[in-house]
Prior knowledge:
Radius of gyration: 23 Å
Number of helices: 19
Number of domains: 2
Helix content: 25-40%
Amino acid sequence: MLTPAEELGLGGLNLASRVCEIFYKLPSPQLVALLQRVGSEAFRRHVVYIRDGKQETTPILARPITVLPDQIAYLHVVALTILNALKRLPELYLQDAEVRQVLQLMPEEEEWLRDCWGPSQREHNPVFGRLDAMIDFISPMWKDSLRFVEPNLSGIGGLHLVPTAERILADLVLPILQDGDHRLQLTIGQDMRELLLQEMLDHAQAIGRSGRQICFIEPKYVGSGLDEQSALAEYFRSRYGLVTFHADPAELSLRQGEVYCNGELVDIAYRDYPVCDLIELGQKGVDIEPMRALFRQNRIISSITAEIDQKSCWEILTDPHFTDKYFSADERQVFQRHILWTRLLSDRRTLLPTGSSGELVSYVRKAQETLVLKPNRCFGGQGVLLGHLATRAEWESAMDRALVDPERWVVQQLASIPVNEFPVLSSDGQVHVEPFYTVMGFAPTTYGVAIVGRASQKQVVNVAQRGGMCVIMIGHPPRTLVGPGPRLEE
């Protein structure tokens, strides 16, 4: 007999198969026209990545990935459990020297953390983050396939791209799917922008601010990266009548304890700016006290907690030395099942994936095929080395560099990356069905979870590495589910 989770996985497989069948039965001219329209709408609706000052349209794959409501509910619980654990790390960092060894900050960063972490942050700690993970939604073992790769606790990509890509497919693809099978009930998921806004308004109320004047802060003039915050500010302004600003830190001022943007009062800010970059900005003569005031007064999302956003966070959540002291049995069960074994690479003994204690460096040299090396604090897929794709000499050389690099590296269990097939349009105007690796990012709040779907034909999946967006749609399984056991009827 199938377990309930296996039944659900097979239901997901049947749903995905129905969608694929409709999609691939489309006449070639209609499919070509559809793919062209998706691409042109992506450009028109500003789904772009800025590279060296030039806009590049971020590809949107036209076939949606389908999930079931029960899967979304499970993902919400798991992701929120992990996020809430990460929000406790400032307290652990400040009280435990061993935690500080794993989550090392520069002295200047630590000074900001100590200055900007207080009673208000302990009671109301706003973090809007994205937890990146692998999951195979259509496997009978889909729960076991859920493995979290790394946290991203501030300035997350996808706030504009994801809901815009979802809306494009809802407008262009969903009617075609429903024409092909009137029984299909598909909807897009929760809008990431709405989850962020609710988080901001709730936090503003908790700290006694109106929340009507919101500032989006990023390196506004850098000329590279995702271009989302101006679109986000415009969306909240036009849809909800909020007063929104889009600013560089240099455009803020501080008067009598209040922060202003071009003369306008700021209630709450959302930032895509780490403290280390603010420190560097201050060294160049820019007044960064307005940003410090926002942190200190707990008026910024994500809070100072996000400065402990390192891949080595997973060591705190996967080493019993820490989990047995600081987390509940239910939390430990979630961590053990869904977070990849991760260790800061150094010459020491630790608990290995085998379940026994051993020399870390010796294990990493022997277990190359099952491991990944990553810079601890880089993002955008930079520097990631997959052991099974590297030669022995490349792996040894990377290890030697990592062991002496003051920036520090982590080693992590290799997760199986799901592969999905999507129709793509080649330069000669022909449609080809090609395989893509897919990685998910989950942005949980108490109100729900938004999903960032990314796809690439490289195993390091990231939009910054010229990956594309894949849209997640929520559907319902077919009325009859056939599995190895008896037939199950709804």
